[in-house]
Amino acid sequence: MKHLVIAIIILWAAFHFGGMFFSAKDRSPDVAFGRLLDAPQRSIQNPYHNGYFYLIGLMAASPLDPGKTGYEIWVEETEDAGRGASHERKATRADLVFTLSSDTTSSAWEADDPLHAFGKKEAPFRAAANQYHILLARYERWLGMPFDDWGFGRKVVPLGKHILAIHRLYVADGFSVGTMQGLGRLEKELQSWRTVLREAKTIDTKVLAQVLITDDLQLLSRMLSKPVVDKAILAMGLQLTLPLSTAEYSLRWPVRHQVALAMREGSPRSRSDLQQTHQSSNHDWLTEAAHLPIYAFKSIEHPPAHSTMGVFQFGQASHVYAAYYEAIIMASESHSPYLPRMQEVVGTLDRGRLESMLTPRPIEPNWEIFHGELIETDTRFRLASLQIQLRRPSSQTAVPTRLAEVGSQYFDPFTGLPMLWSPTQQKLYSVGKDRLDDGGDPTFDISVPAAVAPTIVKTSARPATTHSRRR
Question: Over the stretch 57-76, which tens digit does the pLDDT of each residue have?
Fold first, then answer.
């Protein structure tokens, strides 16, 4: 009798487990989870007029059209991903014809006084500007093009390393002509890359935009740290350093992109070795350029559909992921300093006892890393703006008082409190990602040098005589 009861229990468990396991493959995802897979609407129908493709084909051979070449690369990458093909792409499209290193401009770009360095006639970037005039002309054209990211659900490798080199050469060449020419190019740069940041549908594109924006802001901050600054830089600087908007902060499409990738990669067909190499190389460069942890891109991967977690995500676990991702999206768009953890969401949902026992804790993608990078980018905008605002004469003597009066839009987004001031180092700083005050130490805090305008001394009128008082 005892053995019979045990056998019945085993058969019952096998029946329910097997039914859940196999039927999960045939069930549709939760409705809310399914909405995550909906592709975004495209605002540009002609790919040849889209700056997204022009940027992909920017380094193609001079006779080729970058927009057409970029679109062909995108089509080939997409088709190869579907077929699992391993053939090499055409050399004129896949292999870079132009190669430009950011080292060409690094000595002037990273100088303590970049304006002085840009003006030197013997600066090495001047020869490079003549040699790569085709790339500079292409980049100038790209800055004026509309941008619509077509990378959703695909793995098309952007050429981040080479774009960084071109962008530096473009700005440096402008400042070598004159301050107004350089400022005009810097303005185009920041406006264009903020558009990319706002329109990014993949995390790769969003991180690339942040790298370029941060590079421009660090250059601007070094210019603003000098005792004497051109009035044109101060006037235009305030317009260039507005804090990030809700759309720029949003992780909506990058999150959904990762889910779409996992669903697409759920089939047995794998991507080609060549594509995997390109993807890995690009992530390595973005990780280094953005100072991300080496595991950053791996940490946000959604479990593939063919994995064990992928099977159960079509059961009640799909509710968990749908709610978790929606909570992340809402938090990122509300400028929250923290993103919710999955456990906070799981605790509010009713999951079956058997499923909770088999998969007690679904794999949690770590989006906090990339959310922290967006907050840091916003912080750099605010610090650069404060560098300008502190140059204005004020009746307030104490710098902390002035920082408290500028308004919450320029407070430290990591804490919601005013930015900090180090009188000994003459630095403005944010507490940074660890949210600890380290006195402006650039290893932990985000700091910029600042020149403070002298205090306005209010002079009182001469005391009246006794005779005049009576009158």
Answer: 998 888 889 999 999 988 88
Rounded to whole angstroms, the Cα distance separating 70 from 52 reads 8
Phi, psi of 307 (to 5 degrees): -80, 175
Gap between the Cα atoms of 263 and 266, Å rounded: 5
Query: For residues 270 and 84, is the Cβ–Cβ distance under 8 A?
Result: yes
Across 313-426, the runs of DSSP E, i.e. the strands, are 420-422
What whole-number distance in Å separates Cα of residue 159 and Cα of residue 52? Answer: 12
DSSP state of 43: S
The yes-or-no verdict on residue 56 having pLDDT over 50 is: yes
Beta strands in 130-289 (DSSP E): none
Structure tokens of 17?
């487990």
DSSP annotation of 331 = H
Contact, 368 vs 396, CB < 8 A?
A: no
- 455 has a pLDDT exceeding 80: no
Strand partners, 421: 428
Report helix, strand or coil for 157: coil
Residue 345 has pLDDT above 90, yes or no: no
To 5 degrees, how large is the angle CA 52–CA 57–CA 63? 135
**Given a cut of 90, is residue 430 above it in pLDDT?**
yes
Contact predicate 212/195, CB 8 Å: no
Which helix (H) or strand (E) segment holds residue 170: the answer is helix 160-177
159 vs 64: CA distance, rounded Å: 17
The whole-angstrom separation of Cα 316 and Cα 19 is: 14
Dist. CA 222–CA 176, nearest whole Å: 17
Dihedral Cα 193, 380, 371, 42, nearest 10 deg: -20
pLDDT of res. 310? 46
- Residue, of 201 and 318, whose pLDDT is higher: 201
Q: What angle do CA 289, 294, 295 make, to 5 degrees?
A: 130
**Which tokens go with 104?**
């060409």
Query: Which phi and psi angles does 419 have, rounded to 5°?
Result: -60, 160
The CA distance from 375 to 232, in Å, is 28
Burial class (CB in 10 A: 0-12, 13-18, 19+), 235: exposed
Nearest one of 204, 211, 137, 206 to 169, comparing CA atoms: 137
Report the candidate in 402, 114, 371, 108 with the shortest Cα–Cα distance to residue 250.
371
318 close to 262: Cβ distance less than 8 angstroms? no
Q: Is 459 exposed, middle or buried (0-12, 13-18, 19+ CB in 10 A)?
A: exposed
Q: Which helix (H) or strand (E) holds 129?
A: helix 125-131
